[in-house]
Amino acid sequence: MAAPYRPTAWDDLTTRRAWRKLLISAAIGQLLWPVAWVGLLAWCAVMSVTWTVWLFVVPMAYTFYRTFLQWAYWRGALRARRLLRQYPWQVYETPESGIGNLPDVRDGYAWLRFPDPEAPDQHVTMVMHSHVRSVWWGGRLGKRAKAARKEQVREIWFAGDPRFAAVIAVPGPRHLYVIHQRPSYAQGIPADGHGAGSQALELARRAGVRVQGPDSARS
User: pLDDT tens digits, residue range 126-139?
Assistant: First the structure.
């Protein structure tokens, strides 16, 4: 399926539908995981038998973990929306990728490389720092992935700027994931934008990326 040619990815109906699925998934998780945790806790209290408590330790710990992890799903969905509303989809065939094995990438973390918009002959590495929704991608980007799985990520849809942040997806779009440079949503990108021009920085600000300096207050 070819990526839609629109001024922004958000102008495409199928993209908006994919994003709504992302939001609905976050909402369902926000409801179900706390209910599951409380239910398991109540079951243990009712049973009040020591050996049954041990059976529920792992499920309770996991549901508790997922309950407090849900905010990351909401955050990811909202960040994706801001990026999709500013950048168009671009298509990359078999971009360089891998799992770890790079100087600045921790073992087990998936990464991809995309061309610098202002210097196409140079490539920028983007790392999947967050494991939220990254398991699917990690199982297909590594060199050890089976051919059938690697084929699923042969074509990557990309909406964003690799120097800052972007939404990646497979044709559809499906499996939306926000990938970003660490400073983009933390301390902020340096005011010089690592060499990015003023237009690129302004677009990044509108997409929710923090840029250091007096103008960052507008983000």
Answer: 998 876 678 899 88
Q: For residues 211 and 201, give the distance between their C-alpha atoms in angstroms, rounded to a whole number.
A: 7
104 C-beta neighbours (distance < 10 Å), count: 7
Q: Which of 133, 16, 134, 17 is nearest to 74 (CA)?
A: 133
Q: How many other β-carbons are positioned within 10 Å of the β-carbon of residue 146?
A: 9
List pLDDT tens digits, range 18-33. 999 988 888 887 777 7
Q: What is the pLDDT of residues 53-92, one digit of tens each?
A: 666 677 777 777 777 777 788 888 999 999 999 999 999 9
Q: What percent of the chain has pLDDT over 70?
A: 84
Q: What are phi and psi of 126, to 5 degrees?
A: -120, 130
By C-alpha distance, which of 135, 131, 127, 133 is closest to 101?
Answer: 127
Angle, vertex CA 128, rays to CA 19 and CA 118, nearest 5: 85
Predicted local distance difference test score (pLDDT) of residue 213: 62
Closest CA to 128 of 119, 120, 143, 138: 138
**Rounded Cα distance, 153 and 101, in Å:** 20
- Alpha-helical regions (H) of the chain: 13-47, 50-84, 135-141, 147-152, 198-206
Q: Prior bond to 173 cis, omega within 30?
A: yes
Tell the residue number behind the tokens 């983007």, with chain if given: 126
Measured CA to CA, the distance from residue 193 to residue 186 in angstroms comes to: 14
